[in-house]
Design brief:
alpha/beta, five-stranded parallel β-sheet, Glut_synth_ssu1
């Protein structure tokens, strides 16, 4: 604990964002470049070095947060990088994309603003790359064992890196033309520029991990054939089966799933397209769904030049402070949060009729109506109570030329035949069933990440990747060399 009074004398200060009028004209990250390092050592001073650091339990990776806070406070960046990478393969991803349940579990957060753990994390990660503290770590010797990882999102990449460093020969199969899963085609560049992903992939290639892109297992290569070729197979395909909205008018043109829309914007940033075929430019856009994916659609539509953008959230407007009776510390509370995209929509007044920023809360879609050509032109909604029952005389109509459905995901997509070809058991909710060692009902086939856990956070995805790697390594070598941060049945803290 570098400064015993830091939490008393230093107020919380976050990484400042660029001005809204500036940042909505490009796809660069929203934060002011270079503005984090001058403030981060003092922010790390606010860490109390608690006797029982609940931030450890709030983070499924078990990040050693007080330790690297102390090292950053002393500006020992190399040691801080070592402690951070000891539990997290990709802190430059989580430091930008994770909603930081660790901060909700910070002991200081009982009665003060929490330590800016997420900002400290990304500062360490970026400084580590800048100063060369993250060289490739190829294994000293190979085990002669081979592993196929299906899916190159954060779970697949974490599993592949851990197994490669343990000496196994690992090949990652990705059905898209580039590696990264949702990190590549799903997360907008203004939240994380793809150079961070590319840099980490270069490190993994230098360590020996092989990547097979444009290869859909189950279609381009049979799942049984792949299983026969490798000593073990890890399925980390994510939860890509999106939820539908079964209301009248859903068949109209102009109504799309969020994950049909977002990847096209990423492809524009990659240079594959000049303009997205689903561009929001000049259109009245309505986003159905109040989560992070909906916010990503919001920020994307604003940058594309939408005439208006409104986001519908079926939940009521949350309070600005934690309700200690319902969601006591250290659980992650549902409170009113202003993401960068919502800040942009608020300042630009993209939805004048919204309750707050661009959101309409307690709003349920009743139906869509369109024009004579069969294209959507309006969304009809009603206000609902806490039990989602319509409130009388609250119907409204919003203009809608483009509707984006961001309603979450139920489990892995089965259209490629992977699950059926292997004969994998499936849970009632659609996820892949697995045992306490992450192994499915098929020997040598493991399931990890959202494909088995269900839709979750990036920190849980990486933790799953590290844990399944340990299970596979134990099966192949009989040793327990790799860390297991979580078990397959672990869940976030709840009241």
């Amino acid at each position: 604990m570098a400064d015993p009074k830091g939490f008393l004398t230093t107020p919380r200060e976050e990484w400042p964002r660029r001005p809204v009028p500036e940042r909505v004209r490009d796809w660069n990250e929203v934060y002011v470049p270079g503005a984090l390092l001058p403030i981060i050592s003092k922010q790390a001073d606010r860490c109390m070095d608690c006797g029982i650091p609940f931030c450890h339990d709030a983070c499924p990776l078990g990040n050693l947060i007080p330790e690297w806070n102390d090292l950053v406070s002393r500006e020992d960046w190399r040691a801080a990088s070592d402690r951070l990478h000891a539990t997290n393969n990709f802190p430059e991803f989580t430091g930008r994309l994770c909603p930081a349940p660790c901060e909700a579990g910070c002991v200081l957060a009982i009665n003060q603003p929490a330590v800016t753990i997420k900002n400290v994390e990304v500062a360490i990660a970026d400084r580590a790359w800048e100063d060369g503290f993250t060289p490739p770590r190829p294994p000293d010797r190979l085990t002669g064992k081979t592993v196929a990882v299906i899916g190159s999102g954060p779970t697949g990449l974490a599993a592949a890196q851990q197994l490669t460093r343990a000496g196994h020969t690992v090949a990652v199969y990705e059905r898209a033309d580039r590696v990264g899963g949702l990190l590549r085609y799903g997360i907008p560049a203004f939240k994380m520029e793809k150079r961070h992903l590319d840099r980490r992939l270069e490190q993994m290639r230098a360590e020996g991990t092989k990547f097979r892109t444009s290869t859909s297992v189950g279609e381009d290569i049979g799942a049984a054939e792949l299983r026969a070729r490798y000593d073990a197979v890890v399925i980390a395909t994510g939860a890509t089966a999106w939820r539908e909205l079964d209301v009248p008018g859903r068949e109209l043109a102009g109504i799309h799933q969020a994950m049909e829309y977002l990847p096209l914007a990423d492809r524009v940033c990659e240079g594959d397209l000049e303009v997205s075929p689903l561009s929001a430019a000049g259109k009245h856009v309505v986003i159905v769904g109040g989560g992070d994916t909906g916010a990503d659609c919001l920020g994307t539509a604003v940058r594309e030049g939408a005439a208006s953008v409104t986001q519908l959230d079926i939940y009521p407007l949350p309070e600005v402070e934690r309700d200690e009776d319902v969601e006591p510390w250290p659980t992650y509370p549902k409170i009113y949060r202003l993401s960068a995209a919502h800040e942009e929509a608020r300042d630009l007044r993209t939805a004048p009729a919204a309750d707050a920023d661009a959101r309409l809360f307690a709003a349920s879609t009743l139906r869509f109506t369109g024009d004579e050509a069969g294209h959507v032109r309006a969304l009809h909604l009603v206000e609902v109570d806490e039990r989602r029952r319509p409130r009388p005389d609250t119907g409204r109509t919003l203009p809608a030329d483009l509707v984006l459905l961001a309603l979450g995901f139920s489990g892995p997509d089965r259209h490629d035949g992977l699950i059926d070809q292997l004969g994998l058991a499936v849970e009632p909710r659609g996820t892949i069933a697995r045992g306490p060692d992450f192994e499915t009902n098929v020997p040598g086939v493991y399931a990890a990440g959202d494909a088995a856990r269900g839709q979750s956070l990036i920190v849980w995805a990486i933790a799953e990747g590290r844990a399944v790697a340990a299970a596979v390594d134990h099966r192949l070598t009989g040793t327990e060399r790799l860390p297991t941060p979580i078990g397959p049945y672990d869940r976030p803290m709840t009241a």
